[in-house]
Specification:
The complex is a heterodimer of chains A (505) and B (326). Chain A has 505 residues and is an alpha+beta fold. Among the domains of chain A are: 227 residues, Rossmann fold; 56 residues, Dna Ligase, domain 1 (2-Layer Sandwich). Chain A has 15 helices and 23 strands. In chain A, the strands form seven sheets. Chain A has a five-stranded mixed beta sheet with strand order 3-21-20-17-16. In chain A, a hairpin with an 8-residue loop joins strand 13 and strand 14. The longest helix of chain A has 25 residues. In chain B, helix 1 packs antiparallel against helix 2, helix 1 runs antiparallel to helix 8 and helix 14 packs antiparallel against helix 16. About 6% of the residues of chain B have low confidence. Chain B has 326 residues and is mainly alpha-helical. The two termini of chain B are 12 Å apart. Chain B has one domain. Chain B is globular, with a radius of gyration of 20 Å. Classes of the chains: A alpha+beta (505), B mainly alpha (326). The interface between A and B is medium-sized, with 24 and 25 residues.
Chain lengths: 505, 326
């Protein structure tokens, strides 16, 4: 059978010279997803579309939507989910797991260091001014000691694959990374609308994410507490990630609170309940540093809790992620992470970074300015795909605008070569087409080490040719499968009866 | 539980009950009109506006009093805070804000209800059949109640939800009775709306239909029949809707449920109230337990119902004061 030109949903599939997650250069499906390819290819467009509609309906009914503005009343639409899973073979995952673990360990050591002795700065590995002048470096926390020395409890590291399929770290998200609920929901939805795919492939489960998260949050309790009260702190119902905040609180069985539900007395944090104040010991906050405590940070913030920072410094409440982690995911600091890994762990970085030029360095500045039309320029402290210049796709005016910005504030920008992100097949109208994807695994750090559920959020640039995967910019997502390495035993329980099925990898 | 969560649970209960009560009321009056062409359309609809206390709001927004405008106003008008659409919206927003505290199934039910509202408007209602729309609204409300019963812990969240729901129900039952009583007891001022040669007042055809409509609009007609075999009179209807201990929409039963919820919330099992809210509910409940229909009517039904509505408002404020202040 000639697989290069199969009849079916893949019939017209074009790779356009990009690295495809499912199909190799020879046009044949990669060995680890041959079965999946055949099943998908053999489907009728109507059948596939019907499943997409079912998935959309499920999302609508659950309220997993975003609001399209510009109409009189905001119209809600389901978050775009593509039903073709992105598959990662066991061996690749093992490497990623090692690389991510190494990375987050180094980042936590870095944060502890820069909020204490600052050895890495004294030794000149990273220029001191870059760190202490970083907008997210919180001088107020020098000397603070979070339990276990952990600053980053939840890290969302964005990975991309370049033209030859090499995984690279694009950026770390060490503050309040979001999206994990979509990772979990995508799996639930895919299992609901495509159960047969899971019977045919041995996909590693990810549903213990919230159990690990809860165990970690409990582990960082202030030492005086026996049974800690954990809460999730949300900016409120109008935040775009509100669904996720609810979802996590619900899955962990803890209260979801807003700033106005909490108050601080004698350096202890309490929530207002129907039976009076109740002490809070651990806060998984999804509110940025700036809005956390109007007494310390932005005074006008109504989202925070006055006095929270003092309670934290006094060790009466633990906060995840810790305050001041933003200095570790600063885009300028990013370029020094391989040096950090070397410095703290004496290891080479397992997952390479993307080559990065820093305009504040005289030796990089000229290169950046003369190659603006070839580079991607990013503002160091913006996220969500804002404040970005994609040189090869930009107009003359846009390039000149960025030139002025860079000259005015060289520390505020970095430049990287344009990486041709890998693609993954997505269902478009009645067939499959390649769309660019990235991968955000969620790394959890607790007192007993680093854990990563096998998978992550695969974000998809749904628009043809687009590289922008952020949901605020028209991005969607898809389920991410990490395959089991050895035959997996799947157990099904019905009361006392257990059925065991051995599945091939 | 968080006071904010309790507040939302309480209001989910109220809004969902309100959506259902509004659907029942409009449904019955719409069909009451079809069966009693002798009652002028204006009278029929103006009493509805009086029940819901929205006459002024309506007059500001609509020129004529007809079924199309009335259905729009009560079912779809987002500027009418007690319309079905507004009630569902508010219920959903409250449910969204405590998604983590209620079951996913509860949230999805109210969300689906909200989404389902989009496929209706006044044109489709009039075209398809108003009854099927109102039935759909009632059924969604019952689906929510059923799923709540089945999935929500027997705890505070449920008690606050139920307290809101039954307080709203007591208030709605008192209100509908009060207004229809005005309409139906000898009030010859309404004469203009009624054909000259038709009997008016107690015992007349119009009255019978009117009281039947009252009973039907709180879903009480069949149960009333089983309870009283002698026929429909104002006194019996009042007795049934105010004092019957077993009818689920009677004021007495509803207030009794609120009383039970508050006692569970503060885990008090004796008769001494723990706070202001318990005192005001308990007091009203005991009065209803020991009162007779003759006394109520003797002292003036309207005065009594008016007092009940005011006390429901007070109870709501006391509950807020004791538990929900954020």
């Amino acid at each position: 059978m000639n697989l290069a030109k199969p009849s079916g949903l893949f019939e017209c599939f074009q790779q356009d010279g990009f690295f495809d997650e499912m199909i190799g250069l020879n046009g044949e499906p990669r060995s680890f997803c041959r079965q999946l390819f055949e099943t998908l290819n053999a489907m009728s467009p109507d059948d596939f579309r019907a499943r997409c509609e079912l998935a959309d309906l499920t999302l609508m009914n659950q309220g997993i939507t975003f609001t399209v503005y510009g109409h009189e009343a905001g119209i809600e639409k389901p978050f775009p989910v593509d039903l073709v899973p992105r598959v990662i073979p066991a061996s690749e995952w093992t490497q990623l797991e090692k690389g991510l673990t190494q990375r987050v360990q180094a980042l936590n050591l870095f944060l502890h260091d820069v909020y204490h002795e600052g050895k890495i700065l004294t030794d000149g590995v990273i220029p001191r001014e870059l760190v202490v002048n970083a907008p997210n470096y919180r001088r107020e926390f020098v000397g603070a000691n979070p339990p276990g020395g952990i600053y980053i409890h939840i890290c969302g590291t964005d990975l991309i694959r370049d033209g030859d399929g090499t995984y690279r770290v694009l950026e770390d998200n060490c503050r309040t990374p979001s999206g994990v609920s979509y990772m979990l929901e995508n799996r639930i939805i895919l299992m609901r609308v495509f159960p047969s795919l899971f019977r045919e492939n041995s996909v590693r489960p990810i549903d213990d994410y919230t159990s690990i998260l809860l165990a970690n949050l409990r582990s960082i309790k202030p030492s005086r507490v026996e049974t800690p009260t954990v809460v999730v702190l949300t900016p409120g119902v109008y935040n775009s990630a509100y669904f996720e905040h609810c979802f996590l609180a619900q899955q962990m069985g803890v209260e979801l609170v807003e700033g106005r539900d909490l108050f601080v007395e004698d350096n202890y944090v309490f929530m207002k309940t129907t039976s009076g104040p109740k002490r809070v010991d651990v806060i998984y906050r999804r509110v940025d540093d700036d809005f956390l405590d109007p007494l310390v940070f932005r005074q006008e913030s109504a989202l925070g809790v006055p006095g929270l920072v003092n309670a934290y410094r006094a060790g009466n409440v633990s906060i995840a992620n810790g305050i001041g982690t933003g200095v570790a995911d600063d885009k300028v600091i990013y370029s020094y992470v391989p040096d950090m890994i070397k410095y703290y762990l004496d290891e080479d970085a397992i997952i390479p970074s993307v080559e990065t030029y820093l305009p504040w360095r005289e030796d990089h500045k000229q290169h950046v300015l003369t190659n603006l039309d070839k580079l991607v320029v990013k503002a160091t402290n913006e996220s969500g795909g804002y404040g970005m210049l994609i040189g090869p796709q930009a107009t003359r005016t846009e390039i000149e605008e960025f030139r002025d910005k860079i000259l005015a504030d060289p520390r505020g920008y970095i430049a990287q070569p344009l990486i041709s992100l890998s693609r993954s097949p997505c269902f478009v109208e009645d067939h499959f087409e390649g769309r660019h994807v990235d991968l955000r695994p969620y790394i959890l750090c607790g007192l007993d080490g680093v854990k990563i559920v096998p998978g992550g959020l695969t974000r998809v640039a749904m628009r043809k040719g687009s590289y922008v995967v952020n949901s605020s910019q028209g991005g969607g997502s898809k389920d991410t499968w990490v395959l089991g390495s050895s035959p997996m035993v799947q157990e099904q329980r019905m009361g006392d009866m257990v059925q065991r099925q051995v599945l091939d990898a | 539980m968080l006071s904010r969560h309790a507040d939302s649970a309480f209001w989910i209960g109220r809004y969902i009950e309100r959506a259902e009560a509004t659907a029942r009321m409009i449904d019955v009056h719409y069909h009451y009109g079809l069966e009693s062409p002798l009652v002028g359309e204006t009278l029929r609809w103006s009493s509805i506006l009086a029940i819901s206390d929205t006459e002024k709001k309506y007059r500001d927004r609509y020129k004529t009093l007809d079924e199309r405008n009335i259905i729009h106003f009560f079912a779809f008008d987002q500027d009418n805070p007690s319309s079905i659409a507004s009630s569902i919206n508010f219920a959903r927003e409250n449910a969204r804000s405590i998604r983590d505290a209620i079951s996913s199934e509860m949230w999805q039910t109210v969300n689906k209800w909200y989404l389902g509202m989009r496929s209706w408007n006044v044109d489709t209602v009039l075209k398809v059949s108003p009854h099927s729309f109102f039935t759909w609204v009632k059924n969604e409300s019952h689906l929510f109640q059923g799923i709540t019963n089945r999935t929500l812990m027997m705890g505070e969240t449920r008690d606050f939800h139920d307290a809101g729901r039954f307080l709203e129900r007591a208030d709605q039952s008192a209100r509908i009775l009060d207004v229809k009583y005005h309409d139906l007891l000898p009030s010859f001022t309404k004469q203009t709306a009624i054909a000259d040669d038709e009997p008016i007042g107690v015992g007349g055809t119009v009255d019978d239909h009117g009281w039947l409509a009252v009973l039907k609009s709180v879903g009480a007609f069949e149960m009333f029949r089983k309870t009283y075999h002698e026929g429909v009179t104002a006194g019996r209807v009042a007795e049934f809707l105010i004092l019957n201990p077993k009818f689920p929409a009677s004021v007495r039963h509803s207030i009794g449920r609120v009383d039970g919820c508050l006692k569970r919330i503060s885990s008090s099992n004796d008769s001494s109230p723990r706070n202001r809210a318990e005192r005001s509910v308990g007091k009203l409940y005991q009065e209803l337990n020991y009162m007779s229909a003759d006394e109520i009517i003797g002292d003036g039904l309207h005065e009594f119902l008016d007092q009940v509505q005011n006390r429901c408002t007070e109870i709501g404020e006391d509950i807020r004061e004791c538990y929900l202040r954020i």
